[in-house]
Specification:
This is Helix-turn-helix domain-containing protein. About 70% of the residues lie in helices and about 0% in strands. The chain is mainly alpha-helical. The chain has a domain of about 150 residues: Arc Repressor Mutant, subunit A. The chain has a two-stranded antiparallel ribbon with strand order 1-2.
Length: about 550
């Protein structure tokens, strides 16, 4: 029974048990990104009453952090702390300090996050804000667990539970206690299955106490939690390694979660829907009910396009590959197996970097501290200072000029799209010489034009050898015809076709502008978002982010 995190909804809700065979993973950066945003969204209800400046600054911090500008977000949060102190607003200082802790955690600066957490603790204790104290210790528990300090992590969870029990409002208290029990579940994953079940049942018991009509905890939050707990109970009883495995009981809890989702009157968090559909997909695949497994898997992938969850997508690809194989569709099975392999490689690379990041940061900090001691002895001359000023001015001028050039490129693309003349695959012959007969060249060129019109260039398995075989020729002849008549090497030729395709989609179908870059890359046949971004920039001299942002801005 292996842990797979489910991103938090409002506080530290993060546990999802999965038995797909993947190793236990730590997603602290993603977890805290969602955690930080969800808490900050509600921050204006507890900040300085009647002070619009604090609210606007907090909105700015939210926006910066959501754009990945964590350093700038921290700067704004520090200004909120300073301003709140100057006007005597302790609540504003507390919330801003707490959110700074979360951003530092998100950027792997665990040392700084833990240091700031002491200030959060002092402020919250002084104000007797037990809800924030509970959140604080829950966050510290997560940090310690990601640093491998499991005993310290458990101590922090116990403190979080202690303060949650002191929250005055009953409904808030029930909900926060339920969250902590829920988060303790993955802590015991692989250690004590009895406690996994115990804490899941305790979590459900507490959240069921929350009244359906109250001002503190919305009905949607309550239902969301119930769906997640029932889903995890279903996974618990489905697990092959669990001595209490009970397929009928597993299905009962899954159906209970699905019933709650179907009967929910409000909007349920999309992460929860995706998690539930993935769990149902795995459940029916294990029961060999492949059609249902495929149905839930395909539906989950549609939802995931607008709410990127790569770990869930990875599971979906593998289970779909097995399910299609189960109904005898080996071609579609291979398609999903290939998608799984590529995505899995990308995830493993990212995880390796994520694990190394905190260690590298500590090494860098120690090195920087030593360098600072040396540099403090040396005074900076006015000549060097002036040199840097000139450099900075030059860089600013260059940046402004570069921005103008980039925007000019964007305007040229739009103008060509409006006229219907955009065409990056040059149709005029180049100066490349070849020894192919004119008749053979015409036949290959005709098939090449059919290929361009068919859209088959979007298939990921298109290679020079594959296409030559389809055309009934050899790779040398095909390569020479493309070089001569399209003025490009084969790989650049295919990439240009794919980029042209997605540019037209973005221009003509606004819904594509809302999709994640990962989906656009997959839709246009690229192996990864990184390759897609580089190809887009190479073809049009602008990034896809810039192109989409300006399409939205211009409301085209």
């Amino acid at each position: 029974m292996i842990l797979k995190l489910s991103f938090p909804k409002f506080h530290s809700k993060m546990g999802k048990i999965s038995s797909t065979g993947f190793q236990r993973l730590s997603y602290i950066c993603i977890f805290l990104l969602f955690f930080f945003l969800s808490i900050m969204i509600n921050a204006n209800t507890i900040l300085c009453p009647g002070n619009e400046k604090v609210t606007k600054m907090m909105d700015k911090a939210i926006s910066l952090n959501s754009d990945g500008k964590s350093k700038e977000a921290i700067d704004v949060l520090q200004k909120i702390v300073n301003f709140s102190r100057s006007i005597g607003c302790e609540k504003g200082e507390l919330v801003a300090t707490k959110n700074m802790m979360l951003v530092f955690s998100q950027t792997y600066d665990y040392k700084k996050a833990l240091e700031i957490s002491d200030r959060v603790r002092d402020l919250a204790l002084n104000q007797k804000n037990y809800k924030i104290l509970s959140t604080l210790y829950g966050t510290r528990a997560t940090l310690y667990e990601n640093l491998g300090l499991n005993e310290e992590s458990l101590k922090e969870y116990k403190k979080a539970l202690k303060y949650a029990m002191l929250i005055p409002n009953a409904d808030t208290r029930y909900y926060e206690v339920s969250l902590i029990y829920y988060n303790l579940t993955p802590f015991y994953q692989g250690r004590d299955n009895g406690k996994v079940l115990y804490y899941l049942e305790k979590s459900k018991e507490e959240v069921q106490k929350v009244s359906d009509n109250n001002e503190e905890v919305s009905l949607n939050k309550k239902i969301d939690m119930l769906i997640s707990v029932n889903m995890n109970l279903g996974i618990y009883y489905r697990d092959q390694k669990n001595k209490n495995k009970d397929i009928k009981l597993s299905e009962f809890y899954f159906m209970e979660a699905l019933r709650q989702l179907d009967n929910s009157k409000g909007e349920i968090n999309p992460d929860t829907k995706i998690d539930l559909y993935q769990a149902l997909q795995e459940f029916y695949q294990e029961k060999k009910d492949y059609k249902k497994a495929i149905g839930y898997g395909e539906d989950m992938l549609v939802m995931e396009r607008s709410n990127s969850m790569p770990y869930n997508r990875r599971v979906a690809y593998m289970v779909l590959a097995k399910s299609y194989l189960g109904i005898g569709d080996s071609r579609t099975s291979k398609k999903y197996l290939d998608l799984f392999t590529k995505l899995n490689d990308s995830i493993l690379t990212i995880e390796k970097e994520a694990v190394e990041a905190p260690v590298k940061k500590i090494i860098s900090e120690n090195k920087t501290d030593g360098e600072k001691r040396i540099k403090n002895i040396i005074s900076i001359s006015s000549g060097i200072l002036m040199f840097f000023i000139v450099i900075i001015i030059g860089m600013l001028f260059y940046r402004k000029r570069s921005n103008m050039i980039v925007h000019k490129k964007y305007e040229q693309i739009i103008e060509q799209l409006k006229k219907g003349t955009i065409q990056n695959i040059r149709q005029v012959p180049s100066s490349v010489q070849n020894n192919i007969s004119s008749d053979t060249e015409r036949k290959i060129l005709s098939k090449l034009e059919e290929f361009e019109a068919s859209g088959k260039f979007l298939e990921k398995d298109v290679t020079l050898g594959f296409l030559a075989n389809q055309f009934g020729t050899n790779t040398k002849y095909l390569s020479e015809v493309i070089n001569k008549n399209r003025s490009q090497k084969f790989s650049n030729y295919i990439n240009s076709l794919r980029i042209d395709y997605i540019v037209h989609k973005l221009y003509n179908e606004p819904k594509y502008r809302e999709y994640k870059i990962s989906y656009l890359a997959e839709e246009s046949g690229f192996a990864s978002p990184q390759v897609f971004i580089m190809a887009f920039k190479k073809v049009y001299d602008v990034t896809p982010f810039y192109f989409i942002q300006n399409l939205k801005k211009d409301q085209i």
